[in-house]
Amino acid sequence: MNAPTLNASIPVDQIKAEPRPGGRKVYQAGQLFPDIRVPFREVALHPTANEPPVTLYDPSGPYTDPTADIDIARGLPRLRDAWIEARGDVQPVPGREVRPEDNGRVSDAARVPQFPSLPPVRRARAGARPTQLAYARAGIVTPEMEFVAIRENLRREQSAPCVRDGESWGASIPDFVTPEFVRQEVARGRAVIPANINHPELEPMAIGRNFLVKINANIGNSAVTSSVAEEVEKMVWATRWGADTVMDLSTGRNIHNIREWIIRNSPVPIGTVPIYQALEKVGGVAEDLTFDIFADTLIEQAEQGVDYFTIHAGVRLPFIPMTANRVTGIVSRGGSIMAKWCLAHHKENFLYERFDEICEIMAAYDVSFSLGDGLRPGSIADANDEAQFAELRTLGELTKIAWARDCQVMIEGPGHVAMHKIKANMDEQLRHCGEAPFYTLGPLTTDIAPGYDHITSAIGAAMIGWFGTAMLCYVTPKEHLGLPDKQDVKDGVIAYKIAAHAADLAKGHPAARLHDDALSRARFEFRWEDQFNLGLDPETARQYHDETLPKEAHKTAHFCSMCGPKFCSMKISQDIRDAARGEGAAAASEAEAGMREMAEKFREAGGEVAVRV
Amino acid sequence: MNAPTLNASIPVDQIKAEPRPGGRKVYQAGQLFPDIRVPFREVALHPTANEPPVTLYDPSGPYTDPTADIDIARGLPRLRDAWIEARGDVQPVPGREVRPEDNGRVSDAARVPQFPSLPPVRRARAGARPTQLAYARAGIVTPEMEFVAIRENLRREQSAPCVRDGESWGASIPDFVTPEFVRQEVARGRAVIPANINHPELEPMAIGRNFLVKINANIGNSAVTSSVAEEVEKMVWATRWGADTVMDLSTGRNIHNIREWIIRNSPVPIGTVPIYQALEKVGGVAEDLTFDIFADTLIEQAEQGVDYFTIHAGVRLPFIPMTANRVTGIVSRGGSIMAKWCLAHHKENFLYERFDEICEIMAAYDVSFSLGDGLRPGSIADANDEAQFAELRTLGELTKIAWARDCQVMIEGPGHVAMHKIKANMDEQLRHCGEAPFYTLGPLTTDIAPGYDHITSAIGAAMIGWFGTAMLCYVTPKEHLGLPDKQDVKDGVIAYKIAAHAADLAKGHPAARLHDDALSRARFEFRWEDQFNLGLDPETARQYHDETLPKEAHKTAHFCSMCGPKFCSMKISQDIRDAARGEGAAAASEAEAGMREMAEKFREAGGEVAVRV
Asked: A308, A428, B391, B551: which could join B375 in a potential S-S bond, CB 3.0 to 4.6 Å?
């Protein structure tokens, strides 16, 4: 998973609200909790469409709301503060002192500024477990749960009755999502709502097989130390195009301070891989890692508000030799670090042995587990092997332990897998991990296209999303080659929005088809602006169109540049429709009789003129 | 299907041989026919790899052979002349006069030059059917068949024993392809070798479920009349990146003359949609089309050497009302033209009624049928509907008629289809079309990403290729929006090379895995140059790498920019492998005992140094 590096250094005050063209930000209030405001992107259609506006899922937060007053030195509004406090199971704590090693022992000169107004740190009261899972099990519907329910429905109550058409492979997707349904899904561990009590700024979202498929984008500091604004802007940019969560994979200097800036300004859940920072604290020497250093790092990040941790507790000592004959060995950074530690000490992975203690830390802040697949395959040749599935079964054991401590859990998956081996990954995960949400990297369906792995992996991501994966971790064109820039991040996010939506369609998610149908009607009726605005990337669609047909007039022309006026198949088939409609439904059945009249009607309708336009 | 338009006008003498970096052109001679030379791209690996060179499929023709003397005013060597003449079943004919309407009645001023040295025109002798299907049925193994056999094997006799690992859904892919196997596949109609007797310049290739999955790229003249060199260069460019066939979708002026230049210089089969030119000849008025004008156009193009024709004979009158209630009606240009004709005259499609006569023309030149899916779905909402499958069953009837006349046949397929409905398309095609090769456009798996339909469709293309589709027609990022430029053509071709190869892997094609494994070994061993050169686009891969790590030294560095030296998982797992290998195979089983020793060996092996690098 690579981390993007952006180019120019950006002043803190440059990050402002920037609405997305072609749509407007709207909010829907809660019913159980009237103070919640669920954001959507609403696309109004041309009057001739005679259709209601289309409501689209929108993870971009206040940054796309023209009325928002953005100041990243202040951070986003802390909309969950009241909800969290109202539950009465958390307390303010002094919080851990920031130490030099937390920022990679950066020199004073190179240190980025601390976030100005550090919020108070929260922790569970003694004996309490303030997790969404604990609440769900106790039968409590939280504001987070209603927020998610409203968000998943995309205001379909305003749309035409939804189409149920798909193969969900045993998922249980309801026609409409109720807060109670969300509670049930969280209670049985089939969905997670990553929402650290120290990240009240986030807009709650759910990751689960029976919800819309989500995508994650990885960001991280560049080798040349970035400005804090640059790091915040990566997160804003990724969510602008549709990233539902963001993982901060930063390493080296300033990572503690930069992480604080990111979390305070992030409307989406933030994930990390704490072993990276722990390794920094021991000078990069894996053998010197200890549980105490790791646990201290978990607390450090949990107090900042990280919403989920990737933890490679499944890389067990006995599994390591299983990778010896692989073509590409161990390709997970965290996995290889733990494997190195295990071998050096010839001891079982301390993350596995002391998993209980890790659970207690996670539960105290409601940090969700993302159980890492440290032994995932790094090549087609290594897919679905003994090492990979031995680890997956172990992740299943650990899931039950975490659930017993009221911790929310996701399971990470591959990797590089040819198409015929993808479904087995989903089936094994469902079999061993009790339907905990699966969170996969791709998978890449071939190894031969460095520079295009957003495509090799979007193929696998769409398929495994269809089979039941709840969140897809994006891959950018720079995978295997270098650090993605801004364009790479956008390309990766859009490739994965495509994969996620294709999966929702194939699963028969009732909210999915509405978007495709609205866009296709616009396409058929030559409502070019509607077609652009309903697309994942209106700017690019408009630009591509204008390269061939720049004139404004052409945006209303009843033909396009591919065929030109004479050949326009859409125009011709509209004539056909007009003619056929003249027949009414009878036409289809009483073909012979109908056809003669159709032919006449057609001539009357001036079909000849139509093609001569 | 859009047609690309390139930018600058190019002088005829500018098109020269331009080798692809990172590999060299090699040829393998035939055994049955020693004079045939089958081209490949050979990638030599770094000496440390201690592996033989990797042989890759190469449709780019002489244009990537530095020893080739390219002169597009002369055309490519006519390597099949002797083979064709030797069969004694064809004769020179005067050939049809070129008429003003053949070039869209272009003015003398705007007319592009005729190809200088027009070759003699061939036609079947009376009663003869010089088709590869006729020869195959007669038990004759042609040079074309041996050429294809050698080409499909990728010189695997030089490689390690092939891995058979996949799910082929009932295909019958052999370990090695023999000329006799090719003959059998052609004889039963399960593969086609598009090879017009008037296109002796082409390097024979096969399209069939039991061969490597192929891809087609569409080109065509731009509205502003292009120079002939520009049009030829589009074909050269598409094949350079891997297009196995090229369809010329040109319309308007000069199309006859430009087509001649393209065919005379094309190493790959050329396909067309003759109804486009026929419509030009009647001033764009579909109602004025007649069978005679259409048949005359078939002869015109067959005499030039077009290798396959898309013919929309399945758009039957009774099926047209079935499209009336679609979201996007009829989106095939040819399909809508015929539908318009049928409605205007209230008559059955003349391509269907007089299919016999069309077959006789096709057989006389060995032009292969590509039976068009004029009623394919243009949106997710319309997929797999009554109209689409009614037409598909009709294409099955027509296949049997064409086969009875020794004509080679492919069947065209969709279109826009959500993932869960893709397999039904393949199953229905196999059920009704006697395993004639399926040739699909994508399918696009969602409608919501204008500007990214090379990705929405690569997902569907990979899947349907896995299920058994023999050739995938590419889609470029400009689909639905405008005319693709050079970059779009490359992006479309590479996305489809990915889809086709992912399909070969999943089917378990014995030639597929070798490429992935070679690249993954290079990746694991940090043989950066090998990784670039084995990729589909070495230039882009190298450029992406160098953006982050420009120094030459880094191309041999044992780490990459994603993790840096401290974190390099590949480096660490190589240490693990070294340690584990010390244990031999025993390690895996006798884990406990083995591990202690491994730990020691590992320290000796200097693992600590390794991470401190």
From this structure: B391
**B105 contacts: CB under 8 Å, gap ≥ 6:** B253
Q: How many CA atoms lie within 13 A of B92 on its CB side?
A: 5
Find the range with the poorest average confidence among A323-327, B367-371, B469-473.
A323-327
Instruction: Work out whether the CA dihedral A29, A30, A33, A37 comes out positive or negative.
Output: negative
Given the DSSP bridges, would you call strands A438-441 and A471-473 parallel, antiparallel or unpaired? parallel
Shortest alpha-carbon distance between residue A40 and chain B (Å): 17
**Cβ of A591 under 8 Å from any chain B Cβ?**
yes
The tokens for A223 are 């080798």
pTM of the model: 0.93
Structure tokens at A225: 């130390």
HSE, side-chain direction, 13 A CA sphere, residue B210: 24
Q: How far apart are the first and last CA of chain A?
A: 52
C-alpha A604/C-alpha A579 separation (Å) is 9
**Contact indicator for A501, A512 with CB cutoff of 8 Å:** yes
Residue B475, pLDDT > 90, answer yes
Q: For chain A, give me the number of helices (H) and strands (E)?
A: 23, 15
Please state, in angstroms and rounded to a whole number, the distance separating the CA atoms of residues A133 and A193: 9
Is pLDDT of A610 > 60?
Answer: no
A595 phi/psi in degrees, rounded to 5 = -60, -40
Q: Which residues fall within 8 angstroms of residue A590, CB to CB, at 6 or more apart?
A: none
Contact of B122 with chain A, judged by CB distance below 8 Å, is answered with no
Tell me the CB-side half-sphere exposure of residue A468, using CA atoms within 13 A: 25
Q: Please state, in angstroms and rounded to a whole number, the distance separating the CA atoms of residues B454 and A495.
A: 10
Give pLDDT tens digits for B171-183.
Answer: 999 999 999 999 9
Rounded-to-integer distance, Cα A157 and Cα A149, Å: 13
- Helix axis angle, A333-345 to B591-604, nearest 10°: 100
Name the more confident of A82 and A160. A82
Check whether B342 is labelled as a binding-site residue: no
CA A40 to each of CA A34, A58, A319, B195, B392: distance values in angstroms, whole numbers, following the listed order: 17, 5, 46, 55, 42
Q: Which amino acid, residue A203?
A: E
Q: Where are the alpha helices (DSSP H) in B322-452?
A: 333-345, 350-353, 355-365, 386-404, 422-432
CB contact under 8 A, A284 and B611: yes
Q: Is B373 annotated as a binding residue?
A: yes
C-alpha distances in angstroms, A340 versus A101, A320, B582, B600? 22, 9, 15, 12
Query: Quick one: pLDDT at residue B220?
Result: 86
Q: How far is A117 from chain B (nearest CA, A)?
A: 32
- Peptide bond preceding B413 in cis form (omega within 30 of 0): no
Residues of A in contact with B603 (CB under 8 A): 344
Residue A66 CB coordination number (10 Å): 11
User: How far is B391 from B369, CA to CA, in rounded Å?
Assistant: 16
- Whether B7 and chain A come into contact, CB under 8 Å, resolves to no
The pLDDT of residue A13? 77
What values do phi and psi take at B141, rounded to 5? -90, 115
For A501-532, the DSSP string reads HHHHHHHT-TTHHHHHHHHHHHHHTT-HHHHH
Residue A364, token pair as written in the block = 């105290």
Whether the CB-CB separation of A280 and A254 falls below 8 Å is answered with no
Average pLDDT, chain A: 90
Residue type, A165: D
The answer to whether A21 contacts chain B (CB < 8 Å) is no
Residue A9 labeled ligand binder: no
Cβ-contact B401, B369 below 8 angstroms: no
A6 to chain B: closest CA residue:
B548
Q: How far apart are CA A358 and CA A350, in angstroms?
A: 10
DSSP state of B126: T
Of B345, B381, B520, the CB nearest to A327: B520
